[in-house]
Amino acid sequence: PGVRAAVRRSLAAAPLVAPSDGSHLGAHAARPRVRLLLAWLHACLNERCRFAPAGFSKAYDFGDADERAALRLADTWLNRAAAQGAESVPWDALRGVLLSAAYGGRVDIPSDLAELEGVVASLFTATADVGGDVDAFQVCPNLPPLPSGADPEALSRWADALPEESSAAAGEPPTWV
């Protein structure tokens, strides 16, 4: 377990770089950054569940299907934005589908839903756009700074530089959970 392993696994399943087969997946410049944010979200949610009740009131079963749904939904919204010539990311739409369709449907405790909303809102925001900073990464100690932009190689190096394990004592949740 651990966030780095989870992020790496997510990125292996849904690479930051679009396939070279001419598909539409590379159409939006921010796609690599959004995919990294989705990988981070999935890893963090599972880490919160791992340390329930410190992270969430109970452990939710956020699995690969939830992550694939989040990726498909994000790709759909990014494709729509790119087809309309929009350079900005449809952050409101992404937050909405993540909370209503991908992850929020599993959460049945109002305080946990509020926590989920906070995590999603802190990650998927206009400041996280191609050149922006992400406040959610400020709360996690020992993280390398998230690179600006959406360069897939820089984002992959960032994922590889994540700490192998949380800095928490054995069995204790990390302070950011």
> Biggest β-sheet, characterized?
none
Q: Into which percentage range does the β-strand content fall?
A: under 5%
Q: Give the structural class.
A: mainly alpha
How many domains make up the 3D coordinates?
1
Low-pLDDT regions: none
CATH hierarchy class name = Mainly Alpha
Query: What is the CA-atom radius of gyration, in angstroms?
Result: 16 Å
CATH topology term? Helicase, Ruva Protein, domain 3
First CA to last CA: what distance?
Answer: 15 Å
User: Which geometry do the CA atoms define?
Assistant: globular
Q: Quickly give the CATH architecture.
A: Orthogonal Bundle
Helix % is: 40-55%
Number of helices: 6
CATH superfamily: Region D6 of dynein motor
Mean pLDDT: 81
Order of helices and strands: HHHHHH
